[in-house]
Amino acid sequence: MVTGGSSGIGESFLGLISTVESFLVVCNLSRREPVDSFDGRLRHHPCDLSDAAALASAAGAVRRDIESAPPGKLLLVLNSGFGAYGRFPDIDGARQARLIDVNVRSVVDLTARLMDPLRERGGAVLLVASTAAWQPTPWLATYGASKAFVLQWGLALREDLREAGVSVTVLCPGPTRTAFFTAAEMGETAPGLGMANAAAVARLGLRGVVRNRAVVVPGVLNKVSAALACRLPRRWQGRVADLILKRFRNPSSNE
Ligand SMILES: NC(=O)c1ccc[n+]([C@@H]2O[C@H](COP(=O)([O-])OP(=O)(O)OC[C@H]3O[C@@H](n4cnc5c(N)ncnc54)[C@H](OP(=O)(O)O)[C@@H]3O)[C@@H](O)[C@H]2O)c1
Predict the structure, then answer these.
(1) Is the pTM higher than 0.90?
(2) Distance between CA 71 and CA 84 in Å, rounded?
(3) Relative to the CA of 11, which ligand 1 atom is closest?
(4) Does some domain include residue 253?
(5) Which of 47, 48, 197, 225 is least buried, going by the fewest C-beta atoms within 10 A?
(6) pLDDT tens digits for 54-65?
(7) For residue 170, what is the domain's CATH number?
């Protein structure tokens, strides 16, 4: 099961997973339907993950799909998420609450609702966090904190599920060429920052699952920046991130 397979990294997850075995049952949860139905094998359950009732209903549909699927392990890819760029007071409060609902609450709720079949069948959980998880992120304050939650929660879940035969991997991509930046209302790109390819990021995430890695940070630059960021004194982490992240300001903005 993948969330957010309608676009970007999630679309690449679906593409890669669907090539593994022709008999796999593949489910997607997102508001829009993915363009590729993989010869009719994809089961799309439309769902706004910020809506708790819609999530409960979609999770029920996924559980029925799992019950009717042939024996085998279960892979949950919790990928849906979005950012909201700007100084905190300038971002609509309801949008920030929705961000927490999608990026945080839905991850915990969906995993809990699929825990029984996960433990019965065994398998893996792949959580999509971000390099934003490794330090405070001014201009993306709520987004970075939501991804820090996913990273820490995922690492704890990995231990909680160790004896249940379920592995947990947290994927922390750096800037990746997808619709993320438009959705977050950021400027086009940040000068000097290379953009990774979504398919390459998804492939590294799935390779991390196969190798039972706790954390996957794609790309050497991202690995170095994540390692450096958490070694800086706390009071500097936010200052340095501020200097980097303000460069994403839309050039048409007067700030
Ligand atoms: N691109 C980057 O630079 C980058 C870097 C680090 C981490 N990430 C993370 O990677 C993940 C995928 O993002 P992306 O880069 O592939 O961006 P994207 O192309 O904008 O895709 C975001 C996906 O999330 C889904 N989504 C958003 N709001 C949703 C909602 N309310 N309910 C259900 N699904 C929702 C979207 O589906 P619908 O619109 O159809 O609902 C879409 O499929 C996110 O968690 C993001 O935070 C991205």
Answers:
(1) yes
(2) 41
(3) 43
(4) no
(5) 197
(6) 999 999 999 999
(7) 3.40.50.720
